[in-house]
Amino acid sequence: MRALIAAATGLVAALALVLAMTALGSPAGETSPKPLLTTVPTHP
């Protein structure tokens, strides 16, 4: 019985965490204007 209560409590906690993160939304930000380097620069 304790295992069932623990599992239910964990499920409720996980669901509350997901709902809280959904309510906060994604952080506002911008992409970098500089392109990413895809090649290694030559070394002298």
Automatic annotation (TrEMBL):
It comes from the Bacteria. InterPro entries: SPW_0924-like (IPR048001). Residues 25-44 are annotated as: Disordered. This is SPW_0924 family protein. It comes from Streptomyces machairae. The lineage of its organism: Bacteria, Bacillati, Actinomycetota, Actinomycetes, Kitasatosporales.
